[in-house]
Design goal:
By secondary structure, the chain is an alpha/beta fold. 25% of the residues lie in helices and 24% in strands. The chain binds adenosine-5'-triphosphate (ATP) and magnesium ion. Adenosine-5'-triphosphate binds next to helix 2, strand 8 and helix 9. Adenosine-5'-triphosphate (ATP) binds at residues 29-31, 39-40, 42-43, 226-227, 257-258, 265-268.
């Protein structure tokens, strides 16, 4: 059921109510020149969401008119990302390139109507002739070229008789328009370039502004939703469809892009980070790409929820990264089973247990949701995290100190009797005694406040844990004086190569979130190749900018 919850849904509901629209058809039109990012997720959730709510359809159409920047790799990644987000397009995947014949025929029609002409100016002359925001453009000397001559040249452009840039096809609109997009925009240019879908069939390619409205019309799109920067292109969108009256006329509606702080959401910049190997690839878990978020462990429901909370508006704003993190926690809190993992292991010998002691403790996988129990082996040597022991504790430190007591989570209370160090003074082992009367019960004679997580030294599994933080130190890296690449956070990835995890994590799988108790939410890396490599999806609490 489509509810009028934002201005786009209101408008579409009105069109349905008035009978202007019988069935809603939207489309998501990515250009396959990079991987999708979180901004695209907003557009996907809107386009597919509206269609689903209105019991209509949403098409997936690749806007593939720029062959030199596009590739099959991107097409595959994009289709995967859309499905992963939980959406399915109507019918087959579509390509603007499959309309090349029709687009060409419409261009001939425009020429014949006197609405388009072939321009022989050089690219520089065309650029100069366009004028500026404060200066009107100048008519091309070829603007009054006879229809038959334009038609002949256009056919010969198509036949491959001319070099790149020698000629272009332009719409004949108004060189003095206040809207630069209407100053005889280019509709076709020559590019002797193989296309990933059409091969060598074409050496002229239509421009985006020409292709988009016609593709929308050919697919019977009713509402063409796009971002605000296309507002000034709408008059051209409408002009073209008015000149091709045999086509239906979709309604273009613009909404604000999603901008997220502490990151960049521009395919060009993301590609630069990938190409310059400043990150490990398009799916680097620190990137705001959908594939990066997936690899990091962000559940698709969290991303959908995020897009819903961001909402649809007419004015640009910047969304706080903390909101995305909140949505990840919100989802994972209920879905992620608990486990213990020690990132910086410090051996602890429990001196009052026999050497062959092995006791299976039981703990629930989730405190509030029934996920059953897990077995946790308890043995005479365990690991706790180095940060949970302090010889000289700062004020308020509640964990283990020499002579102090702490509870091992899901197990007993231990007391630290001895601290063993190496020649450099580094603590190498703690020798502790277990109070065997404290399994699941607190002592009555004293209060033990601290709780630490732990794993058995002999029964835990070695693992690598990768802890991610924001990729940029600056809230607006792409609006700064310095190049955004100089604002990268040197601590955006911290690797714990010698971590240890409890045995219940042996069968961890990618995209299955776990809460490592006291540490955060983690999931198995999708390129772990049989090893246990965990990515931190998000910390348990928002600690950004606060000393932890
Ligand atoms: P970028 O600016 O990152 O290079 P783009 O707009 O060139 O992206 P397209 O592949 O053309 O990328 O985008 C496909 C659809 O996604 C378009 O309808 C576009 O408006 C929308 N989109 C792209 N970025 C955002 C964003 N940040 N917020 C919302 N929608 C977006
Ligand atoms: Mg684009």
């Amino acid at each position: 059921m489509l509810e009028a919850s934002d201005f786009i849904r209101t408008r579409i509901s009105d069109d349905l109510a008035s009978g202007k629209t019988a069935q809603v058809v939207t489309r998501f039109p990515p250009e396959p020149n990079g991987y999708l990012h979180i901004g695209h997720a907003k557009s996907i959730c809107l386009n597919f969401g509206v269609a689903r709510e209105a019991e209509g359809v949403c098409n997936l159409r690749f806007d593939d008119t720029n062959p030199e920047k596009e590739s099959q790799e991107y097409i595959d990644a994009i289709t995967k990302d859309v499905q992963w987000l939980g959406f399915q397009w109507g019918g087959a995947v579509r390509y603007a390139s499959s309309y090349f014949d029709q687009l060409y025929a419409f261009a001939e029609q425009l020429i014949e109507q006197g609405d388009a002409y072939v321009d022989s100016q050089t690219p520089e002359q065309i650029r100069e002739g366009r004028g500026t925001l404060v200066q009107p453009g100048m008519d091309s000397p070829y603007r009054e070229r006879p229809v038959a001559e334009s038609l002949d040249l256009f056919r010969r452009m198509k036949a491959g008789e001319f070099a790149d840039g020698a000629l272009v096809l332009r719409a004949r609109i108004d060189m003095r328009s206040g809207n630069m997009n209407l100053r005889d925009p280019i509709l076709y240019r020559i590019r002797h370039q193989q296309h990933h879908q059409t091969g060598d069939t074409w050496c002229i390619y239509p421009m985006y502004d020409y292709t988009h409205p016609i593709s929308d019309a050919l697919e019977g799109i009713t509402h063409s939703l796009c971002t605000l920067e296309f507002e000034a292109h709408r008059p051209l969108y409408d002009w073209l469809l008015n000149k091709l009256p045999q086509l239906p006329h979709p309604q273009q509606i613009e909404f604000a892009r999603l901008n997220l702080n502490y990151t960049v959401t521009s395919k060009r910049k993301l590609k630069q980070l990938v190409d310059e190997q400043l990150v490990s690839g398009w799916d680097d878990p620190r990137l705001p790409t959908i594939s990066g978020l997936r690899r990091r462990g962000c559940p698709p429901a969290a991303l959908r929820n995020f897009c819903e909370r961001v909402g649809i508006s007419k004015s640009d704003g910047v969304v706080d990264m903390a909101m995305l993190e909140f949505c990840m926690r919100d989802e994972l809190e209920l879905t992620a089973p608990r486990a213990m993992a020690v990132l910086k292991p410090l051996p602890v010998t429990l001196t009052n247990l026999p050497e062959d002691h092995l006791q299976m403790l039981h703990a629930s996988r989730h405190p509030n949701v029934d996920m059953g129990e897990r077995e946790i082996p308890f043995t005479p040597t365990i690991f706790i995290d180095r940060s949970d022991f302090e010889e000289v504790p700062p004020k308020g430190f509640k964990r283990l100190i020499p002579g102090g007591e702490v509870r091992l989570r899901n197990a007993y209370i231990i007391r630290c009797d001895d601290v063993v160090k190496d020649a450099d003074g580094l603590v190498t082992e703690l020798r502790c005694s277990v109070d065997l009367a404290t399994l699941g019960v607190n002592p009555t004679d004293r209060k033990v406040k601290g709780v630490v997580h732990w794993v058995s030294a002999s029964h835990s599994l070695p693992a690598e844990v990768r802890v991610y933080d924001r990729l940029f130190m600056d809230a607006a890296p792409d609006r700064s004086e310095v190049d955004y690449r100089e604002l990268m956070n040197p601590e955006s990835l911290v690797v714990y190569a010698d971590a240890r995890v409890e045995p219940s994590l042996a069968n961890a799988a990618p995209e299955q979130g776990h809460q490592f108790e006291r540490e955060g939410y983690f999931c198995l890396d999708n390129q772990a190749d049989g090893r246990l490599i965990f990515n931190r999806t998000v910390s348990l609490r928002d600690t950004w900018g606060k000393a932890s």
